């Protein structure tokens, strides 16, 4: 039982770190004009509410690291990051009034979201690897 709780805690923590990296990556892409250069109208402001939501959801998605996939930490992080990206593009953004893929913000919006999620997924997977998992 103790091992299960330990693994849950570690995966939630690395997922939260990944969510933080995702949030900062998306913010940086907007702040430094990368999203504007790609023709995407997406530049979130850095606030506590913005960070908190992404850190918590990152922790929830970090539980995906409980899946028995130990090899290739870079590939694991990149591939597992497709799940939150898909959820965001196909469910959450349409719930907020955007179309599927939020293409109304620009044709490259799915690429920006997938890239930001990949930053978070790879960062979380790297931290998990440093933990010996």
Q: Strand pairing plus helix content: what structural class?
A: mainly alpha
Q: What oligomeric arrangement do these chains adopt?
A: single chain
Task: Assess the beta-strand content as a share of residues.
Answer: under 5%
- How many domains, as an integer? 1
3D shape = elongated
Question: Helical element count?
Answer: 6
- Distance from N terminus to C terminus (CA atoms, Å) equals 18 Å
Proportion of residues in helical segments: 55-70%
Question: Whole-number radius of gyration?
Answer: 15 Å
- Average pLDDT: 92
Q: Could you give the order of the helices and strands?
A: HHHHHH
- Low-confidence parts: none
Q: Please outline the major beta sheet.
A: none
Topology, number of strands: 0
Transmembrane segments: 7-29, 49-67, 74-94, 100-128
Keywords: Membrane, Transmembrane, Transmembrane helix
Structural commentary:
The chain is mainly alpha-helical and 133 residues long. The protein has one domain (2-66, 73-130). Helices cover 70% and strands 0% of the residues. The chain contains six helices and no strands. It has helices spanning 2-31, 34-37, 48-62, 73-80, 82-95, 109-130. Helix 1 (2-31) packs across helix 3 (48-62), helix 4 crosses helix 6 and helix 5 (82-95) packs across helix 6 (109-130). 35% of the residues are buried. The mean pLDDT is 92.
């Amino acid at each position: 039982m103790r091992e299960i709780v330990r693994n849950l805690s570690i995966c939630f923590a690395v997922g939260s770190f990944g969510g933080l990296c995702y949030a900062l990556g998306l913010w940086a892409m907007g702040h430094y004009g990368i999203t504007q250069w790609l023709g995407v109208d997406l530049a979130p402001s850095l606030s506590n509410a913005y960070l908190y939501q992404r850190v918590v959801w990152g922790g929830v998605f970090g539980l995906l690291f409980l899946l028995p996939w130990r090899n290739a930490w870079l590939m694991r992080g990149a591939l597992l990051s497709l799940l939150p990206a898909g959820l965001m593009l196909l469910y959450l953004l349409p719930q907020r009034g955007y179309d599927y893929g939020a293409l109304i913000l620009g044709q490259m919006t799915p690429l920006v979201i997938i890239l930001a999620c990949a930053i978070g997924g790879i960062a979380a997977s790297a931290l998990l690897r440093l933990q010996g998992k």
